[in-house]
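Progress note, project year one: complex with magnesium ion.
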Amino acid sequence: MQKVVTLKDMCVITRTAPMAAEVHGGRAKCLQRLVRLDFPVPKTVALSFDAVRRIAAGAPPDAAAILREFPTLPLLSVRPSSLNPDWGGPGAMLNIGMNAAKHEELCATIGEELATRLYMSFVQSYAIHVARLDADEFDASAHPSIDNLNAMLSVYEAEMDAPFPQEAETQLAEVLRSMARAWDGTSARLLRQAKGAPADAGLGLVVQEMALGIGPGESGYGVIQFIDAGTGQRRVTGRYKAQAISGEHLRDQDGTLYLTRDPRGASLEERCPDLFAQLVAFGETCRQRLREEMEVKFVVHDCEIMVLDAIRVQRSSRAAVRVAVDLAEDGIIPREEAIMRVEPDALSELLHRQVDASTERDVITKGIAASPGAAAGRLVFSAYEAQASAARNEPCVLVRRETTPEDIRGMHAAEAVVTVRGGITSHAAVIGRGLGLPCVVGADDLVIDERKRQFKGPRGRIFTEGDIVTVDGTTGQILNGQVRMVEAALDEAFQTLLSWADALRDIGIRANADTPADAQSARNFMAQGIGLCRTEHMFFESDRVNLMHEMIFSDTPEGRAAVLDRLLPLQRADFTEVFRIMEGLPVCIRLFDPPLHEFLPSGKPGMRDLADVLDLPLSQVVERIEQLEEYNPMLGMRGVRLGVTVPEIYEMQARAIFEATIAASQTGAPVVPEIMIPLVSAMREVELVQGRIDAVAAAVRAETGADFDYRLGVMVETPRAALRAADIAQHAAFLSFGTNDLTQMTYGLSRDDAGRFMSDYVRLGVYEEDPFHRLDLDGVGELLRIGAERGRQGRPDVTLAICGEHGGDRSAIDFCRTNGFDYVSCSPFRVPVARLSAAQLFL
Ligand code: PEP
Ligand code: MG
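Model obtained:
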C-alpha cells in the first residue's frame, strides 16, 4: 500500500511558500509570481511532481486535507502544471464539489438554468475524463433542464452501477488520480517527448477555488492577451462573456464580447472602460515584471476582477522573434537573452512558406523532410513536363524515382520536388535546399508508373499527372490537394535579432552557393562569403549541357580543348557575376567534381536525342556511354582524378576564374578567389594540379598585364586526406572538410542508397541519428580533429572549414568552434539559423 499523499506534499501558494518550477511546474510558479505582484488570485494549492507521481502509482491523495484549506467549500478547479506548457497535459477539470446540495444552493443565488448548466457540465466531464465513460452518452449540448440533468445522472448510475459521487472529497480524489494517470499514458508520453520533453518529465497539479463569472452587477469571464499570437505585434486580443462559467470555451457568436473596440461588435473596452484599463495594466505588469507576454484568464464578479491564471502566450515562430526583440528594445530583457529565447530551427520556418498549422491535412504519405517549406502544384513526372508546366504558368510538383543532373531544369521549374529514393544528401535534397525549394525524399511508399504518368500511394490511392498535391518539406508529408499556407516573413525584427547574434558569435558563416541566384540568396541572408561553389551545377543549363556532351565525346585533347574554349566564356561570365554580387567577400570555387557519366542520359530515348544533337550513330553513343559506366562511380573517376587525367577541364576553369577576377576587380572590390580541389587523397594530386593552375595564372597575367592573387585549397573528403593533412597542407592555404563524402567513406555508406535502411537503423538504435543529417562526432568527428590538427602541423596558418550539409547544424557548429575552425558553410537558407545557433553557442 502506497503512503497517503498528505498536505505536507502539497503547498498553498503564498508569497513566501517554497516553490520552484522544477518541483511544482510552470503554472504553479507563475501563480506565485502573480500573488507576489499583488494580483487578485483565488486561493490555490499546488501538488508537486513527486506528489503527482505517487498518486499515479496508487498512493491515495488526502483530498479532505486539501478541502480543509477552502473553509467555505467553494467549487474547485484542477489544472495541469508541467515544466513547459508546450508539453501538453490533461485538460482542466472544473466545478469539482458540484452535487445536489450545491445545485439547490446555487439555484437560489444564480438561478436554476445556470446552476443546472454547471452541474450538467461537471457530470459530463467527470463521466468522460474520470469515470472514462463513452462521450456519446453525455451530450454536452443538451439544454440545461432538471429533466436532462436527471437523465444524465441516471445514465451515469446505470453505466457505473453506482450513483454519481456526491462528496467533494471523493470527487477531488478521483479527479487528481485520473489526471495523474493521464500524464503517464503512452500517447501523452509520446506526444510530449516529440515536443522535446525528457522521458521523466513531471506533472504538477494546481487546485484552485473557482470564481464564477456569474452574479450581480458586471460579472463574467474572459481571456486577454496583449500581442497578436501570429505576428507578435502588440495589440490586445481576447474574448469576454458576461454571466459565464469561468473556464468555458469562449467562442464567437455565443454572446462573447471583443475586448477592444471592434467594428464587428460590442467590446468590453466600451462597456466597462475601467475594467478594461485594469486588465491592460495587468498585462503591462506581467510584461515588465515577468518579462514575458502573458495570456491572462480572469473573472469579473460584481465589477471586481480575479486573475485565475496567466500563461506564456502560445505563439508562432514569427511572433517569438518579434516578442524577444521588442522586450530587449524596451530594456526589459538583455539582448543576449533575446537571442537565447528564439529556437534557431524556428527561423527556418520564417524563410519559407509553411502549411497553416490550423489546416486539415489529408496525408498521402510521408518521406524524409529534406528541404523545408511548403508548396502546392499539379503533379508532373518528368523534368520536361515540369518545364512545360512552368511555361504555361501552372505551378507543378515534380515527382521522380530519384533526380539526376538531367532533372535540374525541371527542378528549377517546379514548386516542389518529391523523390521515392534517396536520403538527406541525395541529389534532390542538396539541390532543393540550395534553391530553397520544398523537397521530400525517400518517399518509398510511392510506386511510380511513368507510362501511365501516375503514382500509387499507401492504401491503393492513385494520383495522376495534373492532380494537385501539397509538399510539406518541413514535416516530410505529401498532402492531397492545395492546403492553406502562411507566407514567409523576413521582417525587421528578424534582421535585428540576427544583427545582435552576429555581433556576438566567434565563428564565420558562409554559404554554399553555385549560381549567381544562389549568391544573391547568400548575400540576402548575410553570409560572410561563399564556402563552396559547386561549379558542375553551372554546366546543367541547357546551353551548356550540350557542350558538355560534345566534350565528353571528344576523343582527343585538342578536340576537348576546342569545346572547352566555347565553355570558357560562359563560366567566366558566371564567375564574374558571382564575384560582383559578393562584392569582395571570399568566394571558394570547387573545381569540377562529378563523374562525367552523370551528364549522359541513361535511357534509350535520351541516347537517341543525344545521337541527333551530336550527329553520331546511336551505336557510337551507346558504346561511349558504356565505356564511361563505372561499378561504383562515387569512388571512381571523379574529382581530382579527372583533374589529373583530363587536365583540360581544370585548366579551363582556372582560366575562367582568373579572367573573371580581373574583370570583377576592375569595376568593384578587389577579388582574391579561392580555388578548391575535390576528392583529394594524396599530396601528389595537389602538387600536379597546383603546377597546372600556377601555369594558367602566369599565362593570364602575361596575356593581360594584370596582377591578381588567389588561394589554392583542398577539400578534405576522403579519410586518407584527413590522415595525411600535414603533407597536403604544404600545398593548401585552406582545408575545407566535405563531410558528406567523408561520412560516406568513413562509414562505407552510400549517400544515395542509405535512405533505404536508415530508418530501421535509427529505430533499432544502431545509429542514434542519420549520420548524413547529424554529424557523427565520434567517428567522422575524430577524423576531422585529426585532419585539423595535422593540417595545422603542416601549415600553422591554414584556414579550416566544413562545407558538407552538416555545416548549418548546431552540433557541427559547436564542434567547429571547439576545434578552432574558422568557418562553416551551409545552404543559403540555413545561414540565418547557423548565425543564431553560433551566437547561442558563444553565450
Ligand atoms: C561533401 O562531400 O561534403 C561536399 C560538400 O561535396 P558534395 O556534396 O558536392 O559531394
Ligand atoms: Mg563531396
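The pocket of magnesium ion (ligand 2) is lined by residues 717, 738, 740-741 (CB under 6 Å).
The chain is about 45% helix and 15% strand.
No further modelling is planned for this target in the current period.
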